[in-house]
Design a protein that fits this description.
This protein has 261 residues and is α/β, with parallel strands linked by helices. The protein has two domains: 6-187, Vaccinia Virus protein VP39 (Rossmann fold); 197-260, Orthogonal Bundle (Helicase, Ruva Protein, domain 3), CATH 1.10.8. It contains ten helices and nine strands. The protein has helices at residues 16-23, 42-49, 62-72, 107-116, 133-140, 150-158, 197-208, 216-223, 227-233, 246-260; strands at 12-13, 32-36, 54-58, 77-79, 96-101, 124-132, 159-167, 172-173, 180-187. The strands form two sheets. It has a seven-stranded mixed β-sheet. A two-stranded antiparallel ribbon has the order 1-8. α4 links the parallel β5 (96-101) and β6 (124-132). The radius of gyration is 20 Å and the shape is elongated. It starts with 11 loop residues before the first strand and ends with a helix.
Length: 261
């Protein structure tokens, strides 16, 4: 029996019904598949049944990576590295479909990295990813809700996202203390033009640092109370950060970039 490592956020998916559901979210026959955090290889086995063109798995745990290589041999390319240290564009010239039961302690960091680092088009066509349910709710939240914030704004900038299903703790070993959610991400065709994603991160960080306060203070901090910007974007400073929709934050970021150019 392989022991899960708390330090790596390991909870192995063992529920066959859930595994079946995951590989049926989208068509993967003859496609290039990248699996993140395969663990003991349960999902890997289900993916292989669907006859992908190529399957690459990234597993940080050295012992698990060795087991995966022993179990799957030439059927799977095993990369024993931290996904945060990998340039996905260097793995293959074609697009990937990505599956991942992401370690909960770095799940948002992984997703944010993939969005921020996108340069010349997408290296993936779909992302089928598992998150802690609370995090998933933040990702899919809309404006005017309590869970709306920096993460949902960043994700919505380049990706469409839908929840596939929620997953209970008994589907994993060891059982996590929280529910999980499976999300499907698809690249957007039209993306709001922002020169540097770090500016979007900064603008949203400033606005949401006091999410229960009115917009006046963060707006003045970034734009020195510029009334022309308020008029152009039709912003009411008596509102709160969660009341501004996605598009307004992208427009604010462009205004911020224009001021600094």
């Amino acid at each position: 029996m392989i022991k899960a490592k708390k330090s790596l956020g390991q909870n192995f998916l063992v529920d066959t019904n859930v595994l079946e559901k995951i590989v049926n979210v989208i068509q993967i026959k003859e496609k290039n598949i990248l699996e993140i955090g395969p663990g003991t290889g349960a999902l890997t086995s289900y993916i292989l049944k669907k006859k992908p063109k190529k399957l690459i798995v990234v597993e940080k745990d050295k012992n698990l990576a060795q087991k995966l290589y022993q179990n799957f041999k030439e059927e799977v390319t095993v990369i024993n590295k931290d996904i945060l240290e990998i340039d996905e564009n260097s793995l293959i010239k074609e697009k990937f479909t990505v599956f991942g039961n992401l370690p909960y302690n770095i799940s948002t960091e992984i997703l944010s990295k993939w969005i921020v680092n996108l340069k010349d088009g997408f290296w993936f066509d779909y992302l089928v990813l598992m998150f802690q349910k609370e995090v998933a709710n933040r990702i899919i939240s809309d404006f005017n809700t309590s869970t709306y914030g920096r993460l949902s704004i960043l994700v919505n900038w380049k990706l469409k996202v839908v929840k596939v299903c929620d997953i209970k703790p008994f589907s994993f070993f060891p059982k996590p203390k929280v529910d999980s959610s499976l999300l499907l991400f698809t690249p957007k065709n039209k993306i709001f033009k922002i020169h540097n994603p770090k500016n979007l991160e900064k603008v949203t960080r400033v606005f949401f640092s006091h999410r229960r306060k009115m917009l006046r203070k963060p707006f003045n901090q970034l734009f020195n109370g510029d009334q022309r910007i308020l008029d152009r974007l039709k912003i009411n400073l008596n509102l709160r950060p969660q009341n501004l929709d996605f598009e307004t934050y992208y427009q604010l970021t462009r205004e911020y970039e224009n001021l600094r150019s």
